[in-house]
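Good day; I would like, with your permission, to put a structural problem before you. What I wish to show you is a protein chain and, alongside it, a tokenised description of its three-dimensional fold. I would ask you to consider whether the tokens describe a fold that such a sequence might reasonably adopt. You will find the record immediately after this paragraph:
***
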Amino acid sequence: MYKDTTYYTVEELIAQKNIHAPWYERAWYFVYYPVYRFFYWVIWDNIKPSNLKHWYQRARYGYSYRDCWSIDWYLADIIPKMINQLKENLHGVPSDIAAKWAKEDKNDDDMKMAMYDWETILNRIANAFELEYEILDHTLFDCRNKTEEKRMKKLMEDKDTFEGCRIMTTKEKKARNEGWTLFRKYFYSLWD
């Protein structure tokens, strides 16, 4: 009868199938799949009708149905970019930061210090959202206690599955919390 075989990876299954496939079938797959992937992912994926709907909704409403599928991911990706652009075009600072550095003689150094403080705050907010994006991307893990951290370290020993992954440090947790606090505090000041 038939022998049951277990394959632990897709590569093993394909390698076994290719051993028994005739040469012309292996050649067909060698040529067909790369060409198919190129035309599908590079050309068709950019011009298909659902993209037109996506682009139209983005232009008209500022977001699309695709963005609503994972709002957290979308915002964690877009907010740091927007804050970095805000920093490049920075012309002013929030009133509480300006008041901290305001003096009666109003020299340029005071304004530079206020701008520096505001840029530092913006960097911390952007950093918090970049950390959130890494968490959503499953490249950074926020372990709640030592037991969970030990379990994750044991899982991360499998370098193939967890390649490029790491556990969030205490410093990163503090920076993330500080960024969220600053985001809430200066939410109404994120304009120029």
Notes: The radius of gyration is 26 Å. The longest helix spans residues 108-136. The longest strand covers residues 140-141.
